[in-house]
Write a structure and sequence with these properties.
The chain has 9 helices and 6 strands. The protein is of the alpha+beta class and about 230 residues long. Keywords: Metal-binding, Zinc, Zinc-finger.
């Protein structure tokens, strides 16, 4: 057994567990529950270890939330402990899941799987029935805060950072929602951090829409770093 491997967690929950929300354990980069939560020094923002490793593979990387330098990484032991003590109601299937197991649960959640199949079938049908005329618009987007329309991805980033920097309103990311793997119902509590970390580039330049969301996260991180 690999001594460095993360411990396996049971997804079963006890009725005595504290109830939490997905936003409490949401990584601002991948927008999913933390995996191996890790602090950045000196700012102490928390991210998944793998997300930070991807960021640090590029020289001059900074914290996606506050843009401070990254001096070192520290395991967020207290956060990991809290994730083993709290349950979260899955926003898709409405089942209580151990916080530490939520990311794995999402990979096999029946409701998530159904949604992905429906999106895939809908995309394929549109391609066959209507050709390019019926393909979803992935070139321009509407601001989820003020409904400003026809914004390129880079313009959306600039617009939101200029006019909505202080907003804490939960909104759906219009870029992610337009993708084949996106969930148009998911509202992020950290939209600006997510926008700055993943969408500082034009998607059509980098994206292969046939790839899954994990592969696209890797490309998105690498592309965003070029625009820091």
């Amino acid at each position: 057994m690999d001594p460095n491997a993360a411990p396996a967690h049971s997804s079963s929950v006890s009725s005595s567990m504290a109830q939490a929300t997905e936003e409490e354990f949401e990584c601002a980069v991948c927008m999913e529950c933390f995996t191996q939560p890790t602090y950045i020094q000196p700012c102490y923002h928390v991210y998944c270890l793998v997300c930070l490793q991807t960021l640090l593979s590029n020289p001059g990387s900074r914290c996606p939330q506050c843009r401070s330098n990254i001096d070192s990484l520290i395991p967020a032991v207290e956060m990991e402990k809290k994730m083993l003590e709290c349950s979260i109601l899955c926003s898709d299937c409405q089942v209580d899941i151990l916080a530490a197991s939520m990311k794995d649960h999402k990979l096999n959640c029946p409701a998530v799987t159904r949604n992905r199949v429906q999106v895939s079938q809908s995309t394929q049908f549109e391609g066959v029935a209507g050709g390019s005329a019926n393909l979803p618009n992935r070139s321009t987007f509407k601001c989820p805060y003020c409904n400003e329309t026809n914004l390129l991805c880079t313009q959306l980033v600039e617009h939101c950072n200029t006019y909505h920097k202080g907003s804490r309103k939960k909104v759906v990311c219009p870029v992610c929602a337009s993708m084949p793997w996106g969930d148009s119902r998911f509202k992020s509590a950290n939209f600006l951090e997510h926008l700055n970390a993943r969408h500082r580039f034009e998607y059509e330049t980098y994206v292969d829409y046939e790839q899954d969301d994990d592969a696209m996260l890797q490309l998105a991180l690498e592309a965003s770093l070029q625009y820091q």
